[in-house]
């Protein structure tokens, strides 16, 4: 087992479980949902098609990245750590390098077959394996808050299934500003969209008991300059706030390199 240290938490997309927090600290910006479907406004297939069209044009992204993680230590004191690096998205995988003062200390990511994490800071160890051989137990043993492929879902870069025989109802928030639905399969996922722009603004991985496991807020959408003459440039969230609900640890990833 790797040693758990603050900068490992900064790499925290994969190491949030390493940040000990005795009391959960949930979000105070919960969306209040209405009681019924609004399929007369937009149905699931239309919402999924709009999302899939956007991300289909985001097959590769390179960006500077700033990372901050907030957690509460074993003594109950609030802690925070920052780092900087680069984020690379090459569908269907990604890589995130994190360091300080221009030195890369943590490198994590996965491609279509493998996942890896290289620690050049304390343990000087490398962890890697095949995606088809990792399960939630193994992921937890490595300190992963979610499976490698699930991180793509939490960042809003995974397509939604379409053409289902029984698609989910689309529900409106109480004030009509958001649209949401749940997808169940091996895991239960909750998706929330802005009702006007149809930007995906929150993704949550839900435990079997109905409690949130990881919640990702997608913020600060901006256009990605494709420079490939493929029509309108797609919009991408440039700031991600991931909360590990059981511990309250929070990771902030900013693709504008600002923190």
Question: What does the model show?
Answer:
This protein is mostly beta strands and 259 residues long. Helix content is 12%, strand content 42%. It contains 4 helices and 14 strands. β11 and β12 (212-223) form a beta hairpin. The chain is globular and about 55 Å long. Residues 1-28 have low confidence and may be disordered.
Write a concise keyword list for the protein shown above.
259 residues, mainly beta, 4 helices, 42% strand, disordered N terminus
Q: What structural category characterises the helix and strand content?
A: mainly beta
Q: Could you report the average pLDDT, rounded to the nearest whole number? A: 78
What helical percentage do the residues reach? 10-25%
Unreliable residue stretches: 1-28
- β-sheet strand percentage: 35-45%
Number of strands: 14
Largest sheet: 14 strands, antiparallel
Distance between the termini: 30 Å
